[in-house]
Design goal:
- The protein is built from one helix and three strands; from the N terminus they run H-E-E-E.
- The protein is mostly beta strands.
- It has a three-stranded antiparallel β-sheet with strand order 1-2-3, with no helix packed on it.
- A hairpin with a 6-residue loop joins strand 1 and strand 2.
């Protein structure tokens, strides 16, 4: 969202672990909603919300659902 507001491409790196097997996961997500993984053999479920931001008026993303 910040990337769209600033008209910039931003990215975030998330370090986490699999909830099932506790293996480390390193996910990179950018403001164009592209994501990649450091671990080549991982296949996580990544949820990308489909929200029309031009009409969104909620206080948080939770309000969209």
């Amino acid at each position: 969202m910040q990337g769209h507001l600033r008209n910039q491409t931003l990215s975030v790196e998330i370090e986490t672990a699999c909830a099932h097997c506790n293996r480390p996961l390193h996910i990179t997500l950018d403001s164009n909603l592209r994501w990649s993984l450091k671990e080549q053999d991982a296949t996580p479920f990544v949820f990308m919300p489909d929200i029309d931001w031009s009409h969104f008026t909620g206080a948080t993303i939770i309000d969209a659902y």
